[in-house]
Write a structure and sequence with these properties.
Length: about 450
């Protein structure tokens, strides 16, 4: 277990943290999010009045803060979270985008959606029940998605008399399981979301706990958005050819630098063609620069006229990823219709979309015990499995363990554009952990 190492006073006010909450049904995820919003003064008056009114109609004396996130009628009727609820709020120290994800196993795909871009996951555990099957499933998904930071929130401590031994036993069991998955570190916090203990304000009932509150940890956890040290990658979004009297020969390649940095004079390779050139200019809106870094949106100019279009990838010649037409990956199937061997699909990787066919489904992963079910033949909604996809054109994918952006892709139904599957190139979390770079103090190195 770790505690924050960076003081809040040194954090710029513009830092942003994306985080997700996960946990079993009735563990209090929505109540925790509601308490965060309420106690951090991030709820508008009319929103709070609407929640108070809805709570009174349900016979509750106090406002049910879970209603701040459980907005669907079906969610309020059943008292569960079904869809991913996104909320945006800010404190003087940091801005936040949170995703309150469902706890039911049948909504595993929703957690994958919410946590895929998260930099931190808060996993809730009911202090009365401890680590259960769904807790292990959410920890496995967090490891699979390479979320850098994990918080274990042991909720409902008020129902176990705020007993330290109960918290310590749960924290120890979860930390051991997380370590077996390759999760770098876990920060465990005892809370009562309903009463507000250790959510925003420190609890007077747990003087034995000297760590941060949930909000304090969210405000101070080191989060690095500096991708300049990663492998430089520039997916082309658009080719700019004004062909005007002022710019008769201008040919620029517009897009966003997903990782690394590009400088004028750098030798680059265009994938998948393999043609080489050099960066002759870098344009930002209204000015030219010598160097540009992730995640800037820029226009690159090359020294040679090369046939480049949307979907091509510009990379340093000395650090070009291999191209392949046989993509091996771990995937989460998100569509209601199954994914089968031999199925024709589209694969979308960064800005490139190509035709493909599902060549093989070697195994399906059972998250409960991390066992592999060989040759399942198909994947249905919420299944995690291994697939081999044969593409019509070469793709340049990085292993997901090294890049969550250029190592991820989507499989799409070519008939109606439905997203079928979310994929992560390379090994699963168990195999990938051994190949990952050494983590720094902030968690996995992306």
């Amino acid at each position: 277990m770790t505690t924050p190492t960076q003081s809040a006073e040194r954090l710029p006010a513009t830092t942003l943290l994306r985080f997700a909450t996960a946990g079993s049904v009735d563990d209090g995820k929505s109540t925790l999010v509601g308490r965060l919003l309420h106690d951090s003064k991030s709820v508008l008056t009319d929103q709070l009045e609407a929640v108070e009114d809805a709570s009174r109609k349900r016979g509750q004396e106090a406002p049910d803060l879970a209603l701040l996130t459980d907005g669907l009628r079906a969610e309020r009727e059943q008292g569960i979270t079904i869809d991913v609820a996104y909320r945006y709020f800010a404190t003087p120290r940091r801005r936040f985008i949170l995703a309150d994800t469902p706890g039911h196993v049948q909504y595993t795909r929703n957690m994958v959606t919410g946590a895929s871009t998260a930099e931190l996951t808060v996993i809730l555990v009911d202090a009365r029940h401890g680590v259960v099957e769904q807790t292990r499933r959410h920890a496995a998904l967090t490891a699979l998605l390479r979320v850098p930071h994990v918080v274990l929130a042991v909720d409902k401590m008020d129902l176990v008399d705020y007993a330290e031994p109960v918290f310590a036993a749960i924290a120890g069991e979860f930390s051991a399981y997380a370590a077996s998955l390759g999760i770098p570190a876990v920060t465990a916090i005892p809370i009562s979301a309903l009463a507000g203990d250790n959510v925003v304000e420190p609890s007077s009932h747990m003087d034995w706990y000297g760590g941060p509150t949930v909000l304090e940890h969210l405000e101070t956890v080191p989060v690095s958005h500096d991708l300049t040290g990663c492998h430089a990658r520039f997916p082309v979004q658009y080719v700019i050819r004004p062909q005007t009297a002022e710019h008769p020969d201008y040919r620029g390649y517009a897009g966003r630098i997903e990782a690394g940095a590009f400088r004028v004079g750098d030798a680059v390779t265009v994938l998948p063609s393999g043609r080489t050139s050099a960066v002759s200019g870098i344009d930002l809106p209204g000015r030219a620069v010598h160097t540009a870094r992730a995640p800037q949106s820029v226009t690159l100019l090359l020294a040679d006229d090369i046939d480049i279009s949307r979907g091509d990838l510009i990379v340093p010649s000395a650090d070009a990823p291999p191209t392949t037409q046989d993509v091996e990956a771990t995937v989460c199937h998100v569509a209601d219709r199954p994914l089968t061997v031999g199925q024709r699909v589209l694969i979308k990787h960064t800005t490139r979309t190509v035709k493909a066919i599902v060549k093989d489904i070697p195994s399906r992963l059972t998250l409960d015990d991390l066992s592999q079910h060989p040759a399942p033949g198909q994947l249905v909604a919420n299944d995690i499995g291994r697939v081999v996809v044969r593409t019509a054109e070469p793709l340049a994918l990085d292993p997901y363990v090294r890049s969550r952006t250029t190592g991820s892709f989507l499989l799409i139904d070519p008939a109606d554009g439905t997203t079928l599957t979310a994929g992560m190139a390379g090994g699963s979390f168990a195999a990938g952990a051994a190949d990952a770079p050494e983590p720094d103090d902030a968690g996995w190195d992306f």
